């Protein structure tokens, strides 16, 4: 079966394959450096009671901070940060003065209740803190995290590139 393909579409496929290959090399480099830094962090943590950094080390309370949006219309994948809102109670200075005055004069019990304001605060928890406090985390583990986080946009580009390739190939088959 001979397939007639235009020069433009074959050049487009070759360009996309070249881009895909370059992205795979970047991904391989990022993962290689990430696992190297993870090995270094495990070496420095060898005498700890909890052992190596891994699945048994972290707690299950962390919720992911990234969302993947797949659009059927444009056939693209987007990876975005999830906005986590947390309520924080806060008492203002005026209300503190009022409550002190009320306590001194011992007015009605209902009036002496503290009033609180609730406001939504954007919270972006860093998963690395489950491996220790802010100061006790080894720098190699921080570098490991940054290496793996730098690979996330590469996944997005790889998937979108792969989808474009499949779309062009399907058009040329017809």
TrEMBL record:
Disordered as annotated region, ranges: 85-120
GO BP annotation list: vacuolar acidification; vacuolar proton-transporting V-type ATPase complex assembly
Gene Ontology cellular component annotations, sorted alphabetically: Vma12-Vma22 assembly complex
Compositionally biased intervals (Acidic residues): 86-96
Domain of life: Eukaryota
Molecular-function GO terms, alphabetical: unfolded protein binding
A Pfam family annotated for this UniProt entry: Vma22_CCDC115
Protein name from the UniProt record: Vacuolar ATPase assembly protein VMA22
Native organism taxonomy: Eukaryota, Fungi, Dikarya, Ascomycota, Saccharomycotina
């Amino acid at each position: 079966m001979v397939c007639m393909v235009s020069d433009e579409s074959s050049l487009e496929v070759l360009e996309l394959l070249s881009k895909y290959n370059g992205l795979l090399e970047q991904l391989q480099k990022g993962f290689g450096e990430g696992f190297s830094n993870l090995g270094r962090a495990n070496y420095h943590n060898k005498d700890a009671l909890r052992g190596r950094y891994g699945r048994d080390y972290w707690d299950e309370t962390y919720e992911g901070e990234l969302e993947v949006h797949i659009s059927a219309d444009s056939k693209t994948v987007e990876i975005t940060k999830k906005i986590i809102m947390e309520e924080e109670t806060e008492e203002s200075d005026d209300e503190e003065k009022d409550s002190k005055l009320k306590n001194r004069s011992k007015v009605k019990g209902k009036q002496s209740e503290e009033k609180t304001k609730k406001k939504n605060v954007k919270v972006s928890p860093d998963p690395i803190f489950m491996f220790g406090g802010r100061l006790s985390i080894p720098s190699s583990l921080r570098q490991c995290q940054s290496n793996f986080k730098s690979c996330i946009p590469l996944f997005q580009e790889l998937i979108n590139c792969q989808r474009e390739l499949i779309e062009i190939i399907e058009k040329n088959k017809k």
